[in-house]
Amino acid sequence: MLSSFRKFTLPFALLLVMAVANSLVAQKLVAQKVLQPEPQQGEKLVPDGTGNSVLVPDNDSKQKVRGPNGINYHGGPVLQGNPVPIYLIWYGTWTNVTGSDTMATVNLVEHYVNSLGNTPYEKINSTYTDTTGSVSGNVTLGGAIFDTGSQGTGLNNTALSAIVTRSFSNGLPTDPNGVYLVLTSSNVSEQGFCSSFCGFHTHQTLNGTDIKWGFIGNPDRCPSGCEIQTTGPNSPQTGVGGADGLINVLTHEQEEAISDPDLNAWFDKRGEENADKCNFNFGATQKCSSGSLCSAAGDSAGALFNQSFGNNNWMIQQNWENANGGGCVQHFP
Ligand SMILES: [Zn+2]
């Protein structure tokens, strides 16, 4: 059983300190849509360090753009790269022969990231702009490395920072315009993973550079909390849904890391970023069947999918369209 996510009732000052000291934004578990009350005059909600949001005094001197699309601009940059490089750090043991901690998962996820750029799906993110330009909707696999366990199998956010820092001397560039994702195998724990979130993104100065990084655990550690189905369109066997589940969480985090990289660009009055507003909301789906692009296990299970590109079917959440009045959609335009 998963413990349900509980709202913090800490004193306001402590929350403010937490928000400033360690801001990160997490993807909540399946069916977990906890909405904040709307802020009163003189307050605003911002993403906090727990995957929820926190009320702080709204004393911005900048005039905020109150968009008509249900999500607001707060003055910070978006990632405008065309493409935005996504760097993957495969942490733990990814060389098992069965299950989802396998090279088959590694290859599938890297193929996904390389297929995602400029799809009508990823173009939804191009509806986000800053004062100098917009998100391109193009991404690419900027590089990938393995870290077989430099910080052990029980992680916290400090350990994750160390894993990202280590990647700079282990083959990845120090790139302020990219997104670094630490992907952990299912034997690795991370504080809060599976109990209050499935993944998160944040930013931090590492190597003297403002690095955007995120965490995504193999959701086969907690399928009921972080997977929409236990057999996905690309499952290697019945009941092994980790790769498809991981791809869904990765999709969520890269959308937010690109549209709100420093946690000061795009989120709504409740502190929810674009992908948060469509968390585990898939829209219309189809069923895998013989002759579809699904795996044999996906076919026989009748796994659901809602996207097809890169010669595969995928089951990925919708994203919030910052146009046409706003809404969770599967493609743009
Ligand atoms: Zn999120």
Task: Describe the protein.
There is one protein chain. It contains six helices and 18 strands. The protein has 333 residues and is α/β, with parallel strands linked by helices. The N and C termini lie far apart (40 Å). The protein has helices at residues 12-21, 103-116, 157-167, 223-226, 242-259, 296-301; strands at 24-27, 43-47, 53-57, 72-73, 84-91, 139-147, 154-155, 179-184, 189-190, 199-206, 209-217, 266-267, 286-287, 304-305, 307-309, 312-314, 319-321, 327-329. It has a six-stranded mixed β-sheet, sandwiched between helices. Strands 2-3 form a two-stranded antiparallel ribbon. A two-stranded antiparallel sheet has the order 4-12. Bound molecules: zinc ion. Zinc ion binds at residues 25, 27, 252, 256, 273, 275-276.
Indicate the structural class: alpha/beta
Rounded Rg = 19 Å
User: Beta-strand percentage?
Assistant: 15-25%
Overall geometry comes to globular
Biggest beta sheet attributes? 6 strands, mixed
What features would you highlight for this structure?
disordered N terminus, two-stranded antiparallel ribbon, 333 residues, alpha/beta, six-stranded mixed beta sheet, 23% strand, binds zinc ion
